[in-house]
Amino acid sequence: MLKLYGSAFSRASIVKWYLEELAIPYEFVTLDMQAGEHRQDGFCR
To answer: What is the C-alpha radius of gyration for the chain, rounded to an integer number of angstroms?
Structure first.
């Protein structure tokens, strides 16, 4: 299953919409971008 990381108002919503349209199963993991969760060690190169 795919994991899609993003926030309610991020560009991930576009990908989420495509996944819904194509009926592809996924898990949406909400991140708090303002708190910098996307900059934690697990998400950086």
So the answer is: 11
